[in-house]
Please model this.
Amino acid sequence: MYVTPVLLLIFGLCMVVLKRRKAKVASTAPGPLGWPVIGNLAQLGCKPHKTLTEYRKRYGDVYQITMGSCPTVVLNGQKVIRQALVKQSEDFAGRPDFYSFKFIANGNSMGFSDYGARWKMHRKIAQNVLALCANKKYNPIEEAIVSEAKFLVQNLLKSDGQPIDPHHEIYLSVGNIICALCFGKRYRRDDPDFLQLVKNNDEFMAFAGAGNPVDIMPWMRHFTKRSFKQFLKILDTMDNLCLKKQREHLDTYDATHVRDITDALIKATEETSTEEKKSVGLTDVHIMTTLQELIGAGFDTIASTLQWSILYLMTNPEWQEKVYKEILAAYGTDKDPDVTDLSELPYTEATILETMRHSCIFPFALPHSTTKDTYINGYFIKEKTLVFVNLWSVSHDPEFFHEPEVFNPSRFLDTSGTRLIVDRTKLDCFLPFGSGKRKCPGEQLAKMELFLFFTILVQKCKFEIVPGEHPVVDSKYGLTLKPIDFNVIVHDRNMENTSTVSDLPL
Ligand code: HEM
Model:
């Protein structure tokens, strides 16, 4: 007779205890035990993306680690990541309150700022500006990319059959495209402003690697004062350069003739009403700092992917030949590629996709955080919990990619081996650009740049391993994964064609 009220009382007490526990814990997900102060940092090793993908086998698709003193939920595998970023997109669209983020673009950044009304308006402006400036009709950026890619070929060929590290030349070329987009100007390779921008970008990426100690243990900044000061100096230089460009543009600005991203942003400051801006706390300074953001985001990503592509081409000569023959058949030795032809070039597209899948340059996207208390896979996660989206676990998932460690573009081809798999939604199922609300807004520009640079490089050059060397296909860990430095021998395909023609009997 008393059983029911007693059970209800016990149930009620359990709920209160559970609720209290939830209030304290960041999540109820399982995970490895960590050390005091440093948490699981020491266990991550020099390849955190691989370690955290291994942990998935032990703890499942959702688990918790501690970064310093910061509880961090790690999401793994396509299913859970899509659930979080697409189906529960608002819950997982936040950015953590990292110490270093407060200094990026003086705290006015879009990509590093938290989810909310201000971010939404800022993101919309950034997207519109990108769509306008990387648009074939309004801005012939394709032509600029094609000429820059040819210039890159010329510079690589200057090595004249001697080993060359392609890193520097690639960075200068990709840097020039982002400058053409942002400032409407191509720079000379020795221009001090330009060289400063390239150097800044390299240093920023090195500092901002995921798992930065000052972000997860802010007190560390007292012990890393010098390097943090250096970081602030990098940000300051970038700020000054963009301000200088903004002033130069304002002198000749004409709202009816938008020349580049700087102009488009100036126009956005004028066209977004004061009331609209005020209602979400967006200022003209926020809008103008989008310039720095797009330079940062559109530089290293493309440059590292191109570096990876040369490494894969030279270590997979049979694929290099297949792609070369396809490009030769489509364009001959001199015709410029056209981005609308991409789907007609299955070997080329499959090789670019496999380059992105295998290298997975953004193994943890950018750090996310929860915007409210939520649940995923049955686990509770508290509001403002740091979340790592493990994209490496998606692109290297043996359930979807047979022998994921092997570079094999044919995985994107159908059974005939000559056409791309029919279901195009499966082509980017490894989420190279993330997904949901925070999905990369530069995706279309990135795809266009990668296709044009890649196709022209293969059309004009043959990449070979330096005799006697055994290049290591592995990455250096940072915010983006870059290949370990390597040298390559670059041959001129035109010379090859000329000699083949002249070798023919008269
Ligand atoms: C190979 C090239 C690229 C790759 C693989 C890539 C990938 C990504 C990824 C994974 C994210 C994070 C998504 C998340 O946090 O969930 C991201 C964010 C972002 N990307 Fe890209 N990206 C590339 C090129 C570009 C380019 C060319 C631009 C612009 C010029 C760009 C602009 C941005 C911005 C502004 C964000 C922050 C978005 C936000 O927080 O709302 N990216 N990108």
